[in-house]
Amino acid sequence: MNAPAASTSTWNIDPAHSAAEFKVKHMMISNVKGSFSGLSGVLTEHTLDSTLSSVEAAVPVATISTGDAQRDGHLKSADFFDAEKFPTLNFKSTKVVKKGDAEYEVAGDLTIHGVDQAR
Prior knowledge:
Layout: E1 8-12, E2 20-26, E3 30-36, E4 40-46, E5 54-60, H1 69-76, E6 88-100, E7 103-112, E8 115-118
Antiparallel strand pairs: 1-4, 2-3, 4-5, 5-6, 6-7, 7-8
């Protein structure tokens, strides 16, 4: 009996229909929600072994939106993301686990300011 042939499927992230969203505590009282648009990247699914699947994505810092133009400008400045010097946030998966039919748990490294933040 032959083992089933492994296959991979690769998808490009559609920036028109994708966003990276976040929520952070503000002064321990409320939450600030925001998003980045223009997300791009590639998803690769290995059909027989999800641990061989991967995700890579990039987000342009200049697209940050929190609903407050003054705050957005400050977040783009050298005080925070420094969008001029570091124009993208980058994510590269280190682990992919299939949780259900169409559900995966993904862990990886997020690069901000050129420094990897392991997640």
